[in-house]
Amino acid sequence: MKRICPVFAAAFALLIGFPQSSSAYGGRGAGAALVLSETPPGRHGGAHGRAQGKGEEQAHSEHRAGPEKTWYLNRHDLAPDAAAYIVRPDGTVAEGKLEHGGNGWAFKVDTLPMDGTQDGIFTLYVVDRIVADNMLQIRVAKANMINHSCGWGHQFKFDKERHRPKSLAWIPLELVGNDLWDASFHSKTMSGDRIAWTVLDNGAASGNIPVTFTTASGWSRTVETDEDGTASVQLIRDYYPERWIDFDARKKNGLVITAVREYDEQGELDGQSYGTVRIVSTLAWKYQPARADYRSYAFGLGVTALVAVASGAGVYAYRGRRRKPFEEAEPDDEA
Amino acid sequence: MSVDNERWERMKKTAQVHLAMEARETLTRMEDSFSNGPGAMQYFYDLHRASYCDGTPLRTAGKTIGTLCVQVPEELIYAAGAVPLRLCSGAYAFDQIGADFLPAKSCPLIKATLGMLHIGPPAFAGSLSLIVNPSTCDQKKKAGEMLEDFGYPVYHLEMPPAKASEEARVYWRQSIKKFSRVLEKTTGQRITEKRLADAIARVRSAQTAYRRLRDFMKSATPPIRGTDVMVVTNAYFFDDIGKWTGAVNALCNELESRTGTGASATLRHAPRILFTGSPPVFPNLKLPLLIEESGGIIVADEVCSASRLLNDMVAFDEPHLYDMIPAVADRYLKPCTCPVFTSSEDRKRKLVEQAQSFDADGVVYQSFAGCMPYELEQRLVGKHLAEAEIPMLSIETDYSPDDAGQLATRVEAFMESLKGRARRKANDEVRMMK
Amino acid sequence: MTRLRQFLNNGDVSRFRLFFQIAAFGFLIYGGLLAIDLGNTVPAFSCVFADSRAGACYLFPLQHQVNMPWKQFLGGRGIGLYVGIGAFVLFFILFNKAWCGFACPLGALQDWITKLRMKIGMRYSLYAESTFRKLKSIKYLLLALLILLPLGIANSLFGLPKLPHDLATSYCMICPGRTILPLFTGDVSHLAVDFSSKTMTVLTGLGMAVTGLFLVGAFVKKRFFCLFCPMSALQYVFSKAALLRLTKNGAKCTRCGNCYRVCDVGITEIADDVTSKNIVKDDCMMCFKCVAACPEGKCLSVTFLGLPLYDSTQEGFAKRMEGRDVRG
Hints:
Chain A is built from four helices and 17 strands. Chain A has 335 residues and is an alpha+beta fold. In chain B, the strands form two sheets. A four-stranded parallel β-sheet of chain B has the order 2-1-3-4, with helices on both faces. In chain B, α8 (193-215) runs parallel beside α10. Chain B has one domain (11-433). The N and C termini of chain B lie far apart (82 Å). Helix content of chain B is 55%, strand content 10%.
């Protein structure tokens, strides 16, 4: 997180600055999407309390659960009725307390008790609504947070339900990812993978919605959902550090998935009437370098074969010594 | 020349006659003194009579391979399609022949064996395809060379002078592996896994039968005499192994039916003796017979003409020759308690263990005059037995019957002291109980 | 009771062990599919990387648990470590080193490879005694490393800088269990060399080299890996307290060496030591082949809590040797 944050923040800031399509970003300055993130926007990552090394982030966020995590929003312009929701793995829903501090808007997610009862995926939402220019603008920011410690055991290994992130049925325009974690709750989206997201409108699959996939490195693709509400795209492979030694296999690259829906509807909110509704929903996700980029079966099996053949030949040669006659030291013929 | 030839023929005939006389005398002593003995012993008496007295040739299938010393692996000989024949002789008649060309101070067993072989292979044996002589004691080593001089084909089986070190064990395994090749060449038959496994099984049956017989002696009222057991084990030298095993099992069956009937080979409170030392080979059962005639009973022995022949069983891990042949080799070296090794540790432990499990009252240690290994070990063994509070009587003797009287006195005295000791111990126990 | 004991003593423990090992292999590698979970302190190589395992090999959690700063040893995480050690010891002392001989999947694999070699009729290899003595200390070195390296990650040891995090489970990276056992669950991912860092490259490369050596070694030497196994070293620390015992009555021993001959690991003390009562050495895997091969009655005995389970008897020995199948 620490390393990509400035890249992520800067790139994304750049992105949302450019209107890609009038329907995606437009309207108020606050019409830009709301995105949740684990680190404060535009800053170097906060202290995670441990010495950082390569691959350290994964150890912190995936293998060692923490009692509390703070999630930050990227924008300061939250509507007064903005609310944060925390859906726990057991299905219970709690409200998060949105606070505006030095790092902008943030809320804390409490994962106590840390005994494995809340072992699983937390789903976080921030929803806000405002009416401007006769348009009701609803912003949904969603994130999935894993709360897992290997020390709690892996009893949900074969429990598909537990691996599916929970959602709230009333969320207008929600993004749900398929197959995001492996059986041990390690996230497995890798660059180059084909990923699929489903858009749900109040719980129902919603077709023909444009979904944009944007990586922190600047790549972006927009796909429309099919009649099942699924949009799928093949992620770019974009991690090529200059030197081999700089390669970090556990480096998480940010990914934001955005869905936008605009439709006509008459209504009123807080005394203001509107004629169109625009929902911009985001989900913040991460992906890591593809294993094939740094792992080689050829080398592995080659080393094994080499060592096996060498030791086999060694044993054979050693056994062959028994057949040789007893060797004697010959005295030098020179007087 | 013809005078020498005549002398030679006369010597041969005299020796045979004397041998027959010795054998007959021993057998008569045994058969007569235990009139209520198990009928199955008759097989063994008759076998000895036939071989030693009548010179009836044994019919053996395949070639006969003579062995001197107990370290020659019989299983390999059987697997190569031959039959082993232990050549060590206990005949005074042959001893006298050997005395002609061997030093006066040499071991009587060597003199007898060489004497016997000097005038030809044993009458009952037929021809010997090979004599295998392990390099155990000095006298056996030189005896091997002398046999070559007599014209016999001799194979010197190299044995290490120690048995606990890794080098010694590896050396012995190599020696045995070489020996197996020699055997194959002698008999013309390859040693295969199946043949060796069969041979091991056959020897194991014999060993099981022997242990079964031996275990009867643990009883407080043994149903058979120790000298009878020695005759049985002596038959193993030359009898067909299958027949021998069957005869021993028949004997055991009979003994089983006799237990509980009160039939005992000995009087009550007879001193129980563990016999050890230079091997008493038939017909030289002089000292064992003396012991039993003086009222004792030999309940166990630690000699290479009896228990050492048959005690340890071969086990192998993988059913292939690369494991079975070294397994056979190990069995003949590792537990061997022959005094030719650098350490007598195993022999000392075995004596104490045998004394305890057979409840022996005392040990009689026989050493032949001129037998350096046993005479030298006597002090070490004696000390160890004294520490274990087991009384020991050391007797130095040879094959000649002249010292019988003197020996009888000493043996009887020993028996008396053992009886006295037992009485004192019983009194002490009674006193302690009070 | 005597009849029962006679029945047991006549039994062929090797045949029993063959079936037990197959069952234990299936149980430990696939038991997770039946939701069986023995926990994280299994004293055998029930590899963590086999997804459907019934419990985890203790060495992996041990390396993880030891990986903490000094002051945490007195805190909650320290308690986790001590509880883990305690649970491991409790599991272990039930069956002593018979975990190695009867339950360990990697041990079972080596035994199957040995059976293959036996079928081909190829001779096995033996170490010279001096070589054996030198090699057996490797397992203590590996045990020390697998504790020290994680400690060195969380703390600065001997004035050295803290070690890279990739060394966290360095033993698992070089263990042949990691590469081979997951293959039985269809997982080939551990056969790759991981180039993502220098440490990982070296560790995974070494792991594949060890795998190659393991395959050849297990083929020519019975139970090749067990001489180097740090789990064996760790178990031996607690072996004297175990409930299952292998004892020897040295007075009855004739030093015939049958027990040494059948010993897969090649322990000489089983045959040559006639003074010790508890004859389990650090390499022993308590397969009890020695008891089965001893022809002297009650010389070697297996007891559980003092109750005799399996004694060497002459009758049993003869029966088992009769039953050997030797083809021409």
